[in-house]
């Protein structure tokens, strides 16, 4: 027997056989992983015109915002037509001062067939129907003593559906000229008086104008919807020749002075109470003549600055006055021309029942 010097022949695994077995195991694992992957990734396969695509959740990006549509888009344009509003005619009635606080305002208006209440908040006598904070009001003794009056006025003006107008007798004032002669229209023997025996503040006085503007602002602050200026110019009744002619009473300056007063008041109201309506009382003759040489009121000065024009003795001249105010620049004169009368008017015109 042949000897191998202590070594027998090797009887272990063949290298090729081992390699093939290992390769088979790897392929089996890969196959199993592939089947598992197909099963797991099935929801993420998307088939489109571009073929099958795998869209994993972490690989999806937020789509970019679409471009703004072209202003020349062929899509039809939808035009919204605003609703046509019915003109708000003013149907007012003059109410006594006690209606400011006694709860009777609504019933009185119903009885008169009106929806708006007119109150005399500064009378021809110069008396105030509210508590003013102005020193001149105390100096003239025209402030009411009732300290609760303003609270009652605020409550009334806060009533839903109630429209309130505050009348202010501007320069016809029988009280303040007694305390301040320098603010008055003067005669050779003292304060001048009109046919009714009333004194007048001078429209040329800057202090008088400032006092009236401050009163209007206080009334706006109390919640009145509209401020109505009456006697808002130089006096027209009485012995006008008895008035002292000086720098404070120069007829050539009347229109500019009155216009300046209106302009300053409008500016102050627009700054603090832009929602408040401002109106003025005039007469038919002033509208037809375009300028009153005695009062200083002018058609253009009123129409360009006021929201409404209230006219006494309008009579049958309503259509003519509407045309005049339209030409002068008043907004919607067919609505904002208010006829002052002793009886209620028709429904499609603005009027005030003012005995």
Automatic annotation (TrEMBL):
* Keyword hit for Hydrolase: yes
Ranges for domain DUF4015 come to 114-309
Q: So where does this one cross the membrane?
A: 20-41
Q: Which GO terms describe its molecular function?
A: hydrolase activity
The answer to whether the entry has keyword Acyltransferase is: no
Signal sequence extent: none
Q: Which keywords belong to this entry?
A: Hydrolase, Membrane, Transmembrane, Transmembrane helix
InterPro entries, per database record? DUF4015 (IPR025275), GH (IPR017853)
Q: What Gene3D superfamilies does this protein map onto?
A: Glycosidases
Q: Can you say what this protein is called?
A: Glycoside hydrolase
